[in-house]
Amino acid sequence: EAQMAELVKHLLPRWLAGTKAAGADEFRLRLAAECWEKCGSESDIVGVGLFAAVCLELGEASRALRAVEALLAERPGLDLRLAYRPEFLQQLRTHGLDSAGHDRAVTPGSLSSLVARAALVARQSRAGGVPLRRHGALLLGARDPGGPSAPATYRVLTEGFNHQATPLGPKGLDTVTGEQRTFANNAEAASAGLHVMKRKWRRAQRHAEVHCLLQLPRLSDAMGKDVLIVEIADIGPSLGWAPPCSRGCSQLLAKFGV
Fold this sequence. Notes:
Low-confidence stretches: none
Mean pLDDT: 86
Oligomer: single chain
Radius of gyration: 25 Å
Largest sheet: 4 strands, antiparallel
Structural class: alpha+beta
Order of helices and strands: HHHHHHHHEEEEEHEHEEH
Strand content: 15-25%
Number of helices: 11
Helix content: 40-55%
């Protein structure tokens, strides 16, 4: 016990304040980068993005740019704006990335601009109490098919992101009606005969696509609309598509014709 107290109160604080501890994060980042260079695939979008982000953190921009250039060479036609977060691409541009026309202007309402917008919306999930699996959704109106020289564009009706919702009340058997249901409060659960040990409140999360629908004047206004859902990686700069969950979101979208 005395040795543990010495470790916690004196030795660990001294180690954390020392130069070795200060360089520990840099050491781990360098080790991860070296492992990727030895074993990683140049065509792996997620891996290259994470490697490039590590290099930028280490102040080695040229190393990051070489990896991204190699990715573009391996995957001709790849649009980085559909793969990585806007702020990460801006970092790369600041350090000189101009390959494959990725500095060209983004057309408002185009897929690349919508993905970037959804990624920025997804960042609000953290403030909304959802630090992981951060999703941003856009409910899209009528599609302009464009023409020979203009891409198809969409109009954004509402934006949504994953966030904590009002907790759900106790769930159990209502001995009065004989049905399973969620009770509004503990008093209602008690009057329905639910045992005190089962009167547990449950955390609830509102998903991004549902958040979009709830901002419409009427749910029926969603008929015939499209929804775009983007997930930003928990670690690294990558983006991914986020299919609606099967626990009710998919059914809700289908019911109202999205």
